[in-house]
Sequence to fold (450 residues):
Amino acid sequence: MIEGTVSRNIRIEQRLARSGAVVFLLVSLLTANVASGQEAATPLQFNFSDPGARSMGFGGAFVALADDATAAFANPAGLVQILKPELSLEVRHWRYATPYTEGGRVEGLPSGFGIDSTVGLRKATSNDDIAGLSFVSLVYPKDNWSVALYRHNAANFEFSSETQGLFGGGTDCCQQRDFDMRTTNDMNIVSYGIAAGYRVSDRFNLGLGVAYYDASFISNTTLFRTNDDTAASLFEANAYLPERTVLNERIGFDDFDTAFSAGFLWKLSDAWQIGGVYRQAPELNLDVELTAGASFSPDVAPGELLLRLDAKVELPEIYGLGIMYRDTDGHLTVSFQWDRINYSSIVDSLKLDDRAMDNVDELHLGMEYVFLGTTPVIALRFGAWLDPDHRMRNTSDRVFAEALLPRGDDQMHYTAGLGAAMQRFQVDFAVDFADELETISMSAIYNFDF
Fold:
């Protein structure tokens, strides 16, 4: 029984063919889930929502509004609505609660020995808190033109997991335990861009932007055998002993690329306005390395390079379309937005035949009520948006892969915001709540009145 467990064929090349998938999924993703070469589910988060606390308060439904400095990213056509030079700054706090498969039974009933006592799978959560500068931009309007420079934190994510005691096989014989593993991820993607809007007519504007993406990511996964080769050890909790490591997998990139965006804004009437945006996806170089662990083979030195691979991965491109209504006295604004995010480009670019990711349609709805008679002017905002499941999932018939790469759940986000505007200065605060991600945003806008 133990011999059949510990001497499983590792099949390095097959694992490597799947390993590129560890890089992306978006929960995020953001959100985004993928598998390492050992089929460990490794969720990542991307921030495809528009920047700014005001936009967050609207539930992200901002493409048809786009009337402040964050339009440089949200919809560059909206920049011409800004009449004075303007500086925008946003900080965000992200609280991730990222689920993953910790262990349990992929098939059969538990034996009742040691940690093999769970019917079905055991789930756990990686909890991480990250805060930082999310967005900054400077807008300069001139006649029918408006130009902006900006920096946007498109992804900022950390994740760690321990998966052990993933059992299969029959109840009384032929027990199988997948390799136990530890995984850590650290990802940061920042874009630096220039955008311009042009007023074609009193009712129609166009915009164009170019962004330079500076992306870094590192994921380390280590596979472990059980604590020793005894039959009892098969059902013990893993102590993650250095001498029992099998493989070390490092996947990462430190790369850059440029991508463009384009948008339009069309004022249908004094009350109604529609807007649209397209964002091209950057393409990044991905490096994968497999090195031998201490127990990989007596003929291979620990740390010896077994295989190296580089590949191209393409992030999702995005299409957005929105409509906005504002009442005649300017108190009430309601905005709706549809975003199409093509997550399948990740799987397609990595040529993962046994994985799938769904393209999704995000729906955003938000409203703002402004108390115009106050000093400063106060605005209350509420919104909601649907983030459909786009986890990378297994499409093969391997039960361990199915357990670690299942379908996820749709996430419903609820948002609220508060804003205060003075003659030259505006401060906004917003929160976004969902099961797997909570975000707090604070932003400030200053216009130069000269």
User: Anything to note?
Assistant: The longest helix spans residues 12-19. DSSP finds six helices and 22 strands in the chain.
